[in-house]
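## Example record

The block below lists the input lines for one assembly entry, exactly as stored, with component labels intact.
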Amino acid sequence: MRGLSISALILIGLLGALFIYVYEDLPAFGDPNAPAIKYTKLFSMAAHDSEEQLGQGVIPQELISKLKERGFPRPSRVESDPESENGWNVFIPKNEFHYDKEEKYYFIQKKGDELNVFRNAFVIRWIEKGLKETGVPNMVTYGLADYRSYDTLGETTVIFTAGISVILLLRRRGRL
Amino acid sequence: MKEDKGERSIVTETISRVMIPFIQLFSLYVIIHGAVGPGGGFQGGVVFGASIILYITAFNLTDGRRRFPESASIVLSSSGLYLYAGIGLLSILFSAGVAQYLNYGFIPLSGQFEQNRALGMELVEIGIGLTVMAIVASIFFDLAHKAEPKNKKEETD
Amino acid sequence: MECLFTMILAKYNYWLSVILMLIGLYAILAKDNLVKKIIGLNIFQTAIFLFFISLGAVKGGTAPIVSQEMISKGYVYVNPLPHVLILTAIVVAVATTAVALSLIIRMNEEYGTIEESEILEKLKEPGT
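Predicted structure tokens for the full assembly:
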């Protein structure tokens, strides 16, 4: 068993080195600006006259063409964000992305001389609209039993199968 | 578990007799209040299974099997899964031509749409709790049962 | 040197999870007893749960239970998505451990031992 222990230690050393290699990409612990809970950056474009158009509520043509060539859904409406300065929320229309109503999808922020275009994270919709749509305050419960109830059905089947297989394996030892 | 040694402990038996109903009551509280606070179906089911394990550990395995026979565990686990799949099938049937997405809101349990969703979620959590409780108790019974020796050869356990 | 120290301290949760993961992996590979391997598998799974949930922490965030007054006061919530996914994974870990332990009981009845090297020797010799 000496050979197996030594090769296991070498493998663990290699995996530790691999972790150090990817260490710098992980977000810091408790970062409120991490991309998983806020937004991820898509691209940035120059802001010549797009800013006045966004201020009036018109979507600039350059934005529509850039989003279309990258394969993102088409925007429909612009509104200025009340919580952050120089920020605009962009909505997508009904049935564009299998949603029933129009949804807040993109976020544009002006920084210096450029407009940065972000895409909202997935959980923003859960946090903001969950209580109104389902009537249940607990986020984890309506995430498990309402939005992802199909996965929970498979989960219950897994634990049922485990119990049945334990009964089948240990049946020959005499019943109580 | 203590049947071959023949000794009983009075302190353990008395404490278990007092604590087991309150543990079961707490598990029901955790299942049903999963909508308002932390908890839910899986958590409450495991706590209920833990109360059955406490009964087996304090008393005999034979007494525990008499209180929780094998037919009860199979019936409870199957009916929990049946309840879950039944609520899903009902929601498919009721929202057939009305909407293009499935949610529990179309089942006519009460008047409003959001209330239907909350009630459907509660029924689903009860189903999960039943299955998890029966399976946890059944797994413990099967793993703890000592095999009888065969052909005068000792079984190492 | 100070910058390096801050970099290590700022993400200390990943260090803890990875060290637990490596301990569990060593137990699976290099131990001889079958039950110790299954316990190593359990340690490995627990370390993965810790890693995934600590990815979704937010500084100063409260538990993910929404209420109307908290929205008006402007509370910050922890990311609820990792919690939902890990609940499923915990149940899978429990089911795997139960089936593995019952398999070990059956192997013990067949071969009379739970050391892996002795079982391999008994399989190699010609005879039942």
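Residues 10-144 of chain B form one domain. Chain B touches chain A at residues 34-41, 61-62, 65, 70, 73, 77-78, 80-81, 84-85, 88, 99, 101, 103-104, 114-115, 117-118, 121, 124-125, 127-128, 131-132, 134-135, 138-139, 141-143, 145, 147-148 (CB under 8 Å).
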